[in-house]
Write the structure tokens for this entry.
Amino acid sequence: MINVAVLGFGTVGAGVAEVLEKNGALIAGRLGEDVRLKYILDIRDFPDSPFGHLVIHDFSLIEQDPEIDVVVETIGGASVAWEYTRRALAAGKHVVTSNKELVAVHGAGLLQLAREKNVNYLFEAAVGGGIPVLRPIQQCLAANEIEEIYGILNGTTNYILTRMVHAGVSFGEALREAQSLGYAEQDPTADVAGYDACRKICILADLAFGRELPPEQVPTEGISDIALEDVTLVERAGWRVKLLGRAVRGVDGRVSAYVAPHLIHERHPMAGVADVFNAVLVRGNAVGEVMFYGPGAGKLPTASAVVADVIDAARHRTKRKEIGWAPWDAAAAGDPQALPMRLYLRTAAGRARVEEVFPGSEILAEAEEIALITPRMARCEAEKRAAGLRPCAKLCVLG
Ligand code: HSE
């Protein structure tokens, strides 16, 4: 019998309880033993929930209970969750989490503590919600040098962009829908401003490139400055706008990462990734390109990944899974401004001036303003030249 305690009875915590209950017999059959949810820790009571009788308010009961094997942390944030995770690991308990902020900011230290205590710290649900992506990168792609990873990593912003364009819903209304569906963070600024996608690309880069990438080192733009006018204009020309997190390993081994909205051509497999769905593309030097796709947020999809980690932790009780990365080293970091890239611009500067500044541009639309895609060059050079055109809109272009 595996005994589990869930910390935080929000969307994901409630999903974990539901999946353990709904699929309990099946999970027990696969694992060879029962998984019992013994406690739910929350500051609130849930008298109307079928799990209300499991709710406790004192973490030390979990910490000191020798029956508890696995602690599931779904509190979120990097304060209380950090303290409880350290205490649970220190008490010799395996910890499973969906908390991307905690993993991105304190993952290296927590993995070190897990190693010292010979327990597992697993976080598949922290990136891509229900999509299996971290484990495949560590296991199935282990024979590759990873050259690049990028993806649509935030369900809320993808949902907002999709609803605005295809259902004519306003930004505020689309955000409210995403919140009511349980996709958005408690403070949705983390979604809209790109911080959530930033944490996720950091975790992907940590694992893929074996070195810590702290979120504060990653230039991050969100979707709040995107004009609906540009989204619809580029759609007519065969492009979609998506918020991407991207990390690229240069030939010198340095990793450059950033988060920004991008134009993606409609023929790219990521262009059709809509609503709350996420996609992660990994380019390895043996496999080429592989893409992972699925629901990037939501109660049961995220719980699916969390519970799979509970099962994996139980399977690795004696021989723990070795996961970790080297500490951040500024000398190993590349400059994202040096990455070759094309830019989308909308400007009133006039065709002659555009052709002078960016000869060979692709013109997408021309009226009082010109919408264009520049030729490929180092981003800093493209930005420098673009400044001379005083663009009213500027976006990165993928590819
Ligand atoms: N707020 C996140 C998103 C939840 O929208 O993708 C899943 O990490």
Summary: The chain has a mean pLDDT of 97. The CA atoms of residues 54 and 387 lie 59 Å apart. The longest helix spans residues 100-116. Residues 129, 154-156, 183-185, 191, 196, 296-297 surround L-homoserine (CB under 6 Å).
